[in-house]
# Entry
Amino acid sequence: MGASPRLFAFDVMPLLYRSHFAFLRNPRMTNSGVNTSALFGFAATLVQVLEEQAPSHAVLVLDSTTPTFRHQEYPAYKAQRQKMPEDIGAAIPMAQELAAALRIPVLRVDGFEADDILGTLAAAAAAAGLEAMLVTPDKDAAQLVGPTTRLYRPGKAGATPEILDAEGVCRQWGLKSPRQMIDLLGLEGDASDNIPGVAGVGEKTALALLQQYGSLDNVLAHAAELKGKLAEKVAASRDDALLSRRLATIRTDVPLPVGLDELARRDPDRDALAAVLAKYELAQLSRRLLGAPAAGAVAAVVPEGKTFRTIRDAPHDYVCARSEAQIGELLAALATAPEWAFDTETTGTDPRNDRLVGLSFATAPGRAWYVPVPEDEAGRRKLLARFAPLLADASKSKVAHNLKFDLTVLRRHGVAAAAPLHDTMLAHYVYDGADRHNLDHVTRLFLDYDKITTESLIGPKGKDQKSMADLPPEAVSDYACEDADMTLQLHARLRQAVRAAGGLRALEESEEPLVPVLADMEEAGIRLDPAVLAAYGKELEDELRTLERRIRASATDSLGGRPAGEADGELALDGDAAGFNLASPKQMGELLFDRLKLDPDAKRTASGQYATDEDTLQKLAGRHPIVDLILDHRACSKLKSTYVDKLPGCMGADGRVRTTFHQHLTETGRLSSSDPNLQNIPIRTERGRRIRGAFVAADTRHVLLSADYSQIELRVMAALSGDEAMKAAFAAGADIHAETAARVYGVPRPQVTPEMRQRCKMVNFGIIYGISAFGLSQRLGIPRKQAAELIDAYFAQYPGVKAYMERTVEAARRDGFVRTLLGRRRFLRDIASRNATARQAAERTAINTPVQGSAADLVKLAMVRIHAELRAKRLGSRMVLQVHDELLFDVPRGEEQAVAEIVRRCMTEEMGLDVPLAVEVGSGATWLDAH
# Structure
């Protein structure tokens, strides 16, 4: 095979873990619901190494499935580790299947860890005259590096890998020899493996000791020379240090079941490899390894058993329209076709600022044109003017994928597209809200077609990526034509699928008509007063300083009057003069859990540090005053950095902030926004409400008008569940939380206390999200038994709600999805999971999605109706913002009453519910005043 004499040994588990967590927020799923995130990254690393390094020998290594000699010596070894995520466990046999198809052996030896197999292989390779490359991100294996052994640390997200020889290891960790890694681990321990080390000694202290004394043995021998508490700690931890060194020492004498000759690389079993790659939908690797479809067309997901067409084998007639004759032919085709698709090519992904490079159109399957747009303004306007009448023709049905992007680009150049307008991205969103909706993915699913990818033209994302403007039009043409062609072909298929799934109303009445509404709102923006934010920023700075002083005082008081993290003569932790850095999760974890002992069962993250995220700290609230202070400090700091400091930089020259709304990013159906995100400004805290005071009307001749649904999700729950008691309460205009409290506690309404009402308010909203007794007990700070009794009493009073929850979960198990009022679907891939945690989360989602999603449907319907009526009445008022259940309008003075009447009517009348909807309307010079 011409390979160099090198053995590459792959440590499977850390590679699987790393890939799983890299895709945690956007997991890679097959069409049958299998999570292949861990396998995908592992396979990409494996294939990259095989292709780039061409090893002569290769092997995968796995940990023993039985206890090892380390567990026998130290039963607490790795005992604190959280249970392996189910999806990672499922990926192990997937990795073994891939290895078998590639004809790469997999070694696993009872009683030994993968590291020990790596050590033994390295020793065997050295004896045989082979160089050994140990492929693992873990630093423990650095101790094995020597004249013939190197550490190969794969780069993250495709970055260049690190290949460390002895000099590189020493430079990386500040050692004199790779073998010192064992002594380093003996001193500092390894939290991820529960190796104790010397209490109170971290990596920097351990390195300082090793640099001074050279070895763990010398450190222990000279413990009496150390200063202050450190001498006591080292002396007291002598046995732990020696134990830790033994545990950290990698064995090189594992009885391997095979010899090096059996690890020699062989050609893969192509049939088996094709089957494995198809099974787990790894199309990109299939192309690399088996040389399948067109170069440059990268598939993200390939349904099992399907074959895919590409531009090479699909009949097509694509034209790069540069001549007058070609452009004339296109204009004639558009004029005679009743329906066509279009797409814009730009220099980037910002439709409000990036340059328009070209337009593509498709009038029939396989028939498309690409029109390069001149860079000079005069030429651009002249060309676009020829297409403007066709785009404005209401007799033509126009289709795009991510329509709002294209509308925004065209609007910027004075071109308006008139309805009927259709969006294949939104059609797929309605069909399956939980899937990905990019054009490449949807084309594979519905057309069995592999598109040319953007990256194949302009390169991977990053600083070196080109833009479409850097390429000649002929190089862009096929790609752009194909986009329009596939969009047109998808339109018919998706429309049929959405109709069959019962979602046509969601698409035609809500999602597609909302696109131009959102485009108008983005264009309008909302005015911001930066002086208000500047003044508030100074207030928050003072508040943060006060909170920090209180946190440090609380820590000092609790630790016996000395600064947290410092002791006489101790080598100090990293941090400021007060002993810890509030911005350091590592140091805060040590403070809260090692020093203050707030939770003996504290969990650690994958990196071995204590978890100090908000959810973790919320569970500790009330145990110590410092926890609430830290949470308050974080909330204040986040608000300042996210909004107070950043919003002024988002203003345009006209003083307005323009967010970008997204219809397809949330699985619930709610809108989201970005650049900046205005959906997450907190409204339940005084601090968050103050931010709203900086959003102001256009000028003194205008006011802002706010319209906010009252308890819309509870009203939707009443309608969906059909619970008579809840429906009657809303019909009577009762305070639903007080009504619930009176029923649950069995008292007359006048005897309902504020505490009773608050608790039942939490139950009312918690039930929508499938809250458990445990969750309710944590939120209310009451015993779990009492929380369970509260939920039982609630269901006794509202039996229709309980019945709704049960039948919804049952239907989700049967169908695999739930749907909203208008028919938008959300698939639940974990609804039948063997993992109880994942399954219960899916059940809660099944309960919540029809409620929250239907509320989102109603808000979108209202937005479409209001926008149409404001335009029909030629009013000067404009809808400028949508945040959850609230709509915000910029209204000329004198139009307030008329707009309030329109808004209230459009938001409440004829919404398809048998429960009355209520809207609170207010106005003022600022958003805060209006709300």
About this structure: The first helix runs from residue 12 to 22. Residues 28 and 47 are 18 Å apart (CA to CA). Confidence is low (pLDDT under 50) at residues 292-306, 563-578.
